[in-house]
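Case study 2.
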Amino acid sequence: MQRLPVYTGHLIRLLATMKKTNVFLKLSLLLFTGFAYHSCQICTCKTITCVAFSDVQFDQWVPYTTDQLLIYKNDVGTADTIRIAAVQKSESYEGRTGGGYGCGRGCNADVWVSGTNMQGNNFQKLSITASKTDPTGSGQGKLSSIYVSMGVTSFGTPSFSDTGFVKSESLQSPITTKFNSSLVIGAKTFLNVQLIQLDTSTNKQAGVYKFYFARNIGLVAWENYPDKTLWIKE
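Prediction:
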């Protein structure tokens, strides 16, 4: 058998060594890239100050304070009083934003307004909740969801505008909304009123089917279905 020249054997061993080195370099580069990416994600994650819940339009359309009494009467003079039992707004806290997995996604703030029935029992009669998100912690977040419920009736909306609830939707049936710069309800005139009305042609469930909200006052009236009893704020 013919033997390979000495330099040929050295060349083969050199090529084998280079191949192993190349694999090692590729593996090292892959590990370094993953570490660098992970480190970059960590270094871009920062702590931010998330402000307490505050929203001008919410405060205009739901201007309630704890222990406030809301008195309503129907057409025969019967009174129904709602006590605002709680106005709970989230406080400021430290959040995190930026980065990747494990880092926060900015700030969240929320509010809950609860009104209880003062006529013989203390069950929750009115509930209004809202939340807002602020990815940067700049305090410029927008309302993301608002829900109003009275008894078995509820409706939701993504935000407020100067004319009230925007594009409301109901959990029970379709809803229509209408803004009135001036509206007579019963014998009283209210300014800047939005009517939110559930469609009773498809939903026959007894309960509130009309809500009247006035800017800077709040709930000024509601009407029940099917008896059409109208309750107006004193």
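The radius of gyration is 32 Å.
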